[in-house]
Design a protein that fits this description.
Blueprint lengths: L2 H24 L33 H6 L14 E7 L5 E7 L1 H5 L3 E5 L32 E2 L5 E7 L2 H10 L1 E6 L6 H6 L3 E2 L1 E2 L2 E2 L1 E4 L2 H7 L2 E9 L11 E7 L2 E6 L4 H11 L7 E4 L14 H13 L3 E4 L2 H7 L6 E9 L5 E12 L21 E10 L13 H19 L3 H7 L17 H12 L12 E2 L2 E13 L7 E9 L2 E8 L8 H13 L6 E4 L16 H24 L13 E4 L2 E4 L6 E3 H7 L4 E7 L5 H4 L3 E13 L5 E11 L6 H20 L5 E2 L4 E2 L18 E5 L22 H13 L15
Parallel strand pairs: 1-15, 13-14, 17-18, 22-23, 29-32
Antiparallel strand pairs: 1-5, 2-4, 2-6, 3-5, 7-18, 8-9, 10-18, 11-16, 12-13, 12-15, 16-17, 19-20, 20-28, 21-22, 21-27, 24-25, 25-26, 28-29, 30-31
């Protein structure tokens, strides 16, 4: 980046920051009616339709029958296969590459290095523009510089995957290594800096928390640690792509379809319409299925070889190329009165990221809205390590931050002799503790009460370590979780009504991503309800960069973003239908806000008998179809109200007194997430998040060799994840109270499931054994 470009980018960031700051001051002062969600979504009042009924996933049949084509299952004629060679040092330069044996190996088409790779623009780094999604802006195979252990340095193309893998093993690369920072201690010794997340400093202060803490009659002050975590989606990262003329066609596994296509266009110096990316099926993402080096390398190699390319990372390749969750070291200090109400809440500490990264683990995010306290200090500092760039991982910040906060609250409850559930309820805030805005919807106390009753919390042993079942210690623990309601700008929807004889069919197109959470099914449900059509008459298209708009599957915000876009498109569709209806229609003279959709047509709200079907309107206008495209409103509701999903989590564990083995015997999640649109897929989402939380609590840990910065356990044989025998029956309940200010009354549910789980497990282990573990994962060696 030139000095001019850097200055221009800094100036743009300053202007955007000033504008954002002004909006954050003005929007909370506006009347509710001026804000999206100020008037409740009509679907909130629909009690007898599809919303809230269990609906099987529309793509389920394709997945279980094997007809769903994932990224590594597409084929192009003449396609070749890619294999990568990775650096084995954390920092330095490539001294030499000997590829003679690989060049001569059977089936080899191309060996690409920085010497012969096409010249490329840097990857747009997340935060540098609204569409940028790269983890870094480092050159990709453009020079000899090494930035992390595992950086791709050679790409081999061959006629089969086996030939490519074999040839890659024949490439010999030598390096000139330079000193690197590969430990947290080194990073701290070199000095730390203020952390930022999404362009904002990770720093919040309310009053003098340190002074209030020092003066508080009851205090807890502890340090908690969480390790690096790696992504392990069932489908490893892959892409199949081809250059067709001057156009690049990509079949990928992506959570950010439109943005990724735009970024690839920038990297290769193309117009956006020259890149077409599809991603209809994604076998798990959790924040990792974005733009990494492998897609860029494959596209460059395809251009150089003149052949379509499939690149499918091995499981080890995912660990080398795709970032994960960063290490954290967190201090939580709570000062309280005798009745347990908080005088001071301090949550500070350290995370890490590389010199070329922009994302530390923002572990204070949950603490910003969970509890009321007279004073607060929340702060994340950053140490720099020469490692692979960090990235989003399910509930970034909240997942590990709640482990520290909720463990500390359990410690405080124990020292005060107050029930842990009751202590949390006593510290419920009346408004957002940091922003001061009102809560749009908050029913976590109800979730606590119903969850405790259903779980049998009253039977919890009062004295830690007092309950035994043979050689097993038995205990119960609880924790709270929160995750913010997000709705990112950029969402558009296209609705097309097509007349088919005496019936009409609707197609909803929205540039969303489906990673297995049931997005397509929920979109069809919401669209069918808005249009007043049966579900079987609604088709949904998604996962294609040719569709208008841009929605990222991340931040548990996709359902809200889709809902807002479909609201806008539906309103525009009604306006167009009323124009077509003309003077001969029972709807003549009605405006869009005076009619509603029902029974395959439109009807006046004040006179439901004055109605006309879509088929009738289109037929009179001699139209076979009608299509509208509209963008959703700006997400101003997130500035006007404090909007969050919440969880009250209950865990029972059994700890073996002889071996230290931990078994989670029961788990219940009680959730407050607004209205639940599809209970069948929601149940799956909640349980999946809880299972990931169990893994974080008991087994997940990326082991970094501090001698050379290399991930030592880069496989699922050594990086342990929960399997069926590790997971008990998980009970899930929810309040199902709509948020009047959110589309459909719903909040996100993708990330709230994992948030707080590790603390619930740790607190249950303490209740079972009397032993407090503050360092994840809680392995048996820490309990013996």
């Amino acid at each position: 980046m030139s000095v001019f470009d850097a200055a221009k980018q800094a100036a743009q960031g300053l202007v955007q920051g000033v504008a954002q700051g002004a909006m954050e001051k003005l929007v909370p002062l506006a009347p509710d009616s001026w804000i999206p969600g100020g008037v409740p979504d009509p679907l909130i009042g629909r009690k007898h339709g599809l919303i809230g009924k269990p609906v099987s996933r529309l793509d389920g049949v394709h997945k279980v029958s094997g007809t769903a084509a994932f990224a590594a299952e597409y084929r192009f004629d003449g396609m070749v296969y890619a294999a990568l060679v990775y650096s084995t040092i954390p920092k330095g330069r490539i001294a030499a590459i000997d590829s003679a044996q690989a060049d001569a190996a059977p089936g080899v088409v191309l060996v690409m290095t920085h010497h012969n790779a096409p010249r490329l623009n840097p990857m747009p780094m997340f935060g540098s523009s609204p569409s940028a999604v790269g983890a870094t802006d480092l050159p990709i195979m453009q020079d000899d510089v090494i930035h992390w252990n595992g950086q791709p340095v050679v790409c081999v193309l061959a006629e089969t995957q086996e030939q490519a893998d074999h040839a890659a093993s024949l490439v010999h690369v030598t390096f000139d290594e330079t000193p690197a920072v590969t430990s947290l201690a080194e990073a701290q010794a070199n000095g730390v800096e203020q952390g930022q997340f999404m362009g904002a400093p990770l720093l919040d202060e309310v009053g003098d928390a340190e002074a209030a803490f020092a003066a508080a009659p009851h205090r807890v002050d502890q340090t908690y640690r969480t390790p690096r975590h790696n992504h392990n989606p069932i489908e490893p990262h892959a892409a199949t792509l081809a250059w067709i003329g001057d156009r690049l066609v990509i079949h990928d596994a992506s959570q950010m379809v439109t943005q990724q296509a735009q970024n690839m266009a920038q990297i290769f110096g193309l117009d956006p319409e020259q890149v077409h990316l599809t991603s209809p099926y994604v076998g798990g993402g959790f924040g990792s299925k974005g733009l990494w080096n492998h897609q860029v390398i494959a596209a460059a190699a395809a251009k150089l070889a003149g052949r379509p390319v499939r690149i499918a990372l091995s499981r080890e390749g995912v660990y080398r190329v795709v970032g994960g969750r960063a290490i954290t070291q967190q201090r939580v200090a709570i000062g309280a009165k005798a009745d347990g109400t908080f005088d001071a809440l301090i949550h500070t500490g350290l995370s890490t990221m590389p010199p070329h990264g922009t994302m530390p683990e923002p572990f204070i995010l949950g603490s910003q809205a969970m509890y009321g306290a007279d004073t607060m200090l929340l702060k994340v500092e950053v140490g720099r390590m020469d490692t692979l760039a960090n990235t989003f991982m399910r509930a970034p910040g909240e997942a590990v931050g709640t482990f520290a906060l909720e463990s500390a609250i359990d410690e405080l409850a124990d020292s005060l002799g107050i029930d842990p559930v009751e202590l949390r309820i006593r510290n419920e805030p009346e408004k957002d503790p940091i922003k001061g805005t009102p809560f749009s919807s908050r029913h976590i106390v109800e979730a606590w009460r119903t969850g405790a009753d259903r779980f049998g919390w009253a039977d919890r042993p009062e004295t830690p370590g007092s309950r035994r079942d043979g050689e097993w210690h038995v205990g119960m623990g609880c924790a709270m979780g929160t995750y913010p309601y997000y709705r990112m700008p950029g969402a558009e929807a296209r609705i097309t009504l097509t007349r088919e004889g005496d019936a009409v069919r609707a197609k909803v197109e929205i540039a969303a991503a489906e990673m297995g959470m049931g997005t397509a099914t929920t979109t069809a449900i919401v669209a069918a309800e808005r249009l007043g059509l049966p579900l079987e008459q609604v088709d949904v298209a998604y996962g294609d960069s040719a569709i208008p708009g841009a929605i990222m599957a991340g931040g548990s915000q996709q359902t809200a973003a889709i809902g807002a876009a479909v609201i806008a498109a539906h309103n525009a569709l009604v306006e167009e239908l009323l124009k077509l209806a003309g003077n001969d229609s029972p709807l003549s003279g009605a405006s869009a806000d005076e009619v509603g959709s029902e029974a395959g047509g439109l009807a006046r709200l004040d006179n439901p008998d004055a109605k006309e079907t879509y088929v009738s309107i289109l037929a009179r206008a001699q139209r076979d179809d009608l299509s509208v495209t509209k963008a959703g409103s700006a997400p101003l509701e997130t500035m006007h109200w404090s909007m969050h999903s919440y969880s009250a989590l209950f865990c029972e564990v059994r700890v073996n007194a002889v071996t230290g083995e931990v078994r989670v015997s029961r788990f219940l999640g009680s959730f407050d997430c607004g209205r639940i649109l599809n209970p069948k897929t929601a149940l799956s989402q909640f349980r999946g998040g809880i299972i990931m939380g169990l893994g974080m609590a008991l087994m997940e840990e990326t082991q970094l060799d501090e001698r050379n910065g290399r991930i030592a356990n880069a496989s699922m044989a050594e990086y342990h994840l929960p399997v069926h025998l590790d997971v008990p029956e998980i009970d899930v309940i929810w309040t199902d109270i709509p948020d009047p200010h959110a589309p459909m009354g719903a909040h996100g549910i993708g990330e709230i499931g994992i948030t707080g789980v590790a603390a619930a497990v740790a607190n249950a282990i303490y209740n079972a054994t009397g032993k407090r573990i503050r360092d994840l994962p809680i392995t048996l060696d820490k309990l013996l």
